[in-house]
User: Fold this.
Amino acid sequence: MKWEKLKPPDPDDPMCCCGCDIYQYSCCCDCEDLDEAFNSWLKEKTPYCGLQSPVLGTMINNLEISMIPALLLLPLLLRAASLHYLLGIIILTALPGLVLSYYYATHRRKRRTLFFLALALYSLAYMYYLFITEILPRGDVSPLQMCVVTTGMILTIVSLIHTKRGPGFVADSLHEARMDAEDHSNHCDVSIQLAAPEKTRKQAPTTKWTLCPVCKIMRPPRAGHCRTCGSCVQRLDHHCVWINSCVGQANHRSFLQTVCVFVLTSVYGISLVLRSLCPCQYLVTALFYCPGVYSQPSTALCFICCWYSSIITVGLVYLLVAQVLNISFNVTGREAQLALRNKKGQSRLWGLVVDTGEHSRGFYQNWVEFLTMKDSSVSFHSSPTDLV
Assistant:
């Protein structure tokens, strides 16, 4: 019984009423708490509630952070962090913890939210606004450098919009079209094999399609069900809260492009700001020691924003490295998670990648497959206007 509670659910397990789309029913269910309360009632024990009442606990579990106050709070926190370096350390340490805690809360409820996408876009716009209003008037940035930063901003947004067009959902008609295509190809192969010598006859390879236990539709190999989006996705990698969408076969390349462009633009912008604030320091040392940066509120705010951008960039660099390694081994994030859970994969490179050995055909062929893969279905779940 204890192991069943500790065992994480499989990605394709059917949802209970906790994951129901009907909010009135889903907010009333907490299976583990209900079991514990029922067992305590059978044993005539009063369930321990602590200082938190059941009503308050339900309100906290179903609390949704409003985006507008949270977004307005970001510049206030950054300005407060620029008042003193101790405040900067405290706030910049607390901000990632608050964001991660809210991420795990939404991830546990398997609910889509626009908070992270709005936070990412607002942070990008606010950093660019400070760059124009505070750094550009100092005269240390040339027009060419300004054009490079602006181009990076535009390419990041364009790549994000292209990523948001859909991960490649599995449609009902996909399996029917696949069966028709296989019947036609088998008919042609049979006629060709009958005319060919017996030694050259080979059985055409067939791919195994599986039935999704949640969607009840046939899906191709390497497809997976996203419990957050409520649909099956071709070659599902993971559900990214920062784009409020899944990363699958149709948008994996554009997702990787978005991360690459953002990381390059962020690193270049941070280097320009540090050169302007601390011209006598090296770039690496200027981020840790910049004399006189707190003498003016504007320079202190720009320095704090450099640290804020650096924290985000470090996280995205880790994500970029993990994505590149997964592509090199031809494994998706979902497949790596299932391989570790079922003890069928090997962790390599200090745990950065899980080698399943199931789909890998070598470094070169893996990248060729990734760069040439196409969406095999016309997604009806998304449209060009579905940008949220």
